[in-house]
Specification:
transmembrane; 156 residues; two-stranded antiparallel sheet; alpha+beta; membrane; single chain
Length: 156
């Protein structure tokens, strides 16, 4: 009985977590032209993964199946993280504090958004910079490389 009760609590927690995230991200923040910072999204995803593992363990699935599921989840999660990771930096650009997202898979692109606070940022792209071929993070270098192309977006 206690095991079943704990399973129900984990399922309710998982559904609640997903509902809260969807409500905040897709309804409230979008109406205000805001978005979560990466660290907040990573926290939600981590809690989600832990709850899924707890549900799998408490559901009575055999230990071998849970172990295989955990291994597959970590391998898949690592691959997704490796190919979609975009480091974010809080920088000062044109006298204004902004959040810079670096996309450096084949070419180096930086996307700047308004900095609001450590939890949320503006959702409208303000500045785009292209540094050409690379695969590096320009903010990790001592001297910023030369920008090949940049675009400033207006408020509209």
């Amino acid at each position: 009985m206690k095991k079943k009760n704990l399973f129900n609590i984990n399922c309710i927690s998982l559904v609640s977590l997903i509902s809260i995230y969807m409500l905040l991200e897709y309804i409230i923040l979008r109406l205000l032209n805001l978005a979560f910072m990466n660290n907040v999204v990573h926290i939600f995803v981590s809690i989600f993964a832990i709850l899924i593992m707890l549900i799998l363990i408490k559901s009575g699935i055999g230990n071998v199946a849970v172990f295989i599921s955990v291994i597959i989840l970590f391998i898949f999660g690592y691959l997704v993280f490796a190919f979609t990771y975009r480091p974010e930096h809080i920088v000062e650009k044109d006298g204004k504090q902004m959040v810079a997202y670096v996309d450096s898979f084949l070419d180096v692109h930086i996307y700047y958004y308004d900095y609001i606070n450590p939890v949320v940022r503006g959702s409208q792209l303000k500045i785009y910079e292209n540094y050409g071929s690379g695969g590096y993070d320009p903010f990790d270098r001592e001297e910023m490389p030369v920008v090949k192309q940049y675009i400033y977006y207006d408020e509209k």
